[in-house]
């Protein structure tokens, strides 16, 4: 397994990871540097109807929350929502190789931009591989209970990779 690395993370995975594990400490255990673009910070701060994940986000003082809005390339801003576009732009600006995006379109554009990818499930699987005591099945159930949508294909693949597939 590679050493701890740097990552830029989007809104969806932040919410999904809080739903899965109750906080964001899993990121801290896997990465020595976790950057959150200003635009993603704003999405979290605006929150949904109940502000889910806001207190956990604010409590994670070790996150590098970008203080200013980014100058985002027109191709990104015209192809993606502001959060995904800012994640890719910040990664490119800071020469950070890995981004955490769950949405398929954002993942596609990140790949086309030469970036490596993970998502909320990928982070959970990596944590399990690196010795964290985590049940992927339970994490997925908690995510779904909080309204995080996952395809049956993603669920089946995650359970198989975690060695938790149902018989």
Q: Give the full name of the CATH homologous superfamily.
A: 5'-nuclease
Oligomeric form of this entry? Answer: single chain
Shape: globular
How would you write the strand order of the largest sheet? 3-2-1-4-5
Over all CA atoms, what is the radius of gyration?
Answer: 15 Å
Number of domains: 1
Specify the biggest β-sheet. 5 strands, parallel
Written as H for each helix and E for each strand, in order along the chain, the element string is EHHEHHEHHEHEHHH
CATH topology: Rossmann fold
- The CATH architecture: 3-Layer(aba) Sandwich
Strand content: 5-15%
Structural class: alpha/beta
Helix content: 40-55%
What is the residue-mean pLDDT, rounded to a whole number? 93
Description:
This protein has one domain: Rossmann fold, CATH 3.40.50. It starts with a strand and ends in a 6-residue tail after the last helix. Helix 1 (11-21) crosses helix 9. 54% of the residues lie in helices and 11% in strands. It has a five-stranded parallel beta sheet. The longest helix has 13 residues, at 82-94. The chain has helices at residues 11-21, 25-30, 38-46, 54-59, 74-79, 82-94, 104-112, 120-129, 136-145, 152-161; strands at residues 5-9, 31-36, 64-65, 98-100, 116-118. With 167 residues, the protein is of the alpha/beta class.
């Amino acid at each position: 397994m590679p050493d701890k690395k740097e990552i830029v993370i989007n809104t969806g995975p932040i919410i999904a990871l809080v739903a899965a594990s109750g906080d964001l400490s899993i990121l801290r255990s896997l990465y020595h540097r976790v950057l959150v673009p200003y635009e993603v910070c704003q999405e979290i701060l605006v929150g949904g109807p109940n502000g889910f994940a806001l207190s956990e986000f604010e409590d994670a003082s070790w996150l590098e929350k970008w203080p200013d809005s980014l100058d985002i390339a027109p191709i990104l801003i015209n192809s993606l929502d502001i959060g995904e576009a800012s994640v890719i732009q910040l990664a490119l600006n800071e020469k950070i190789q890995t981004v955490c995006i769950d949405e398929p379109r954002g993942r596609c554009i990140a790949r086309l931009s030469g970036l490596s990818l993970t998502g909320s499930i990928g982070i959970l699987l990596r944590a399990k591989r690196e010795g964290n005591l985590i049940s992927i099945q339970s994490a997925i159930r908690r995510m779904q209970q909080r309204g995080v949508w996952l395809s049956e294909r993603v669920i089946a693949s995650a359970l198989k990779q975690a060695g938790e597939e149902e018989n």
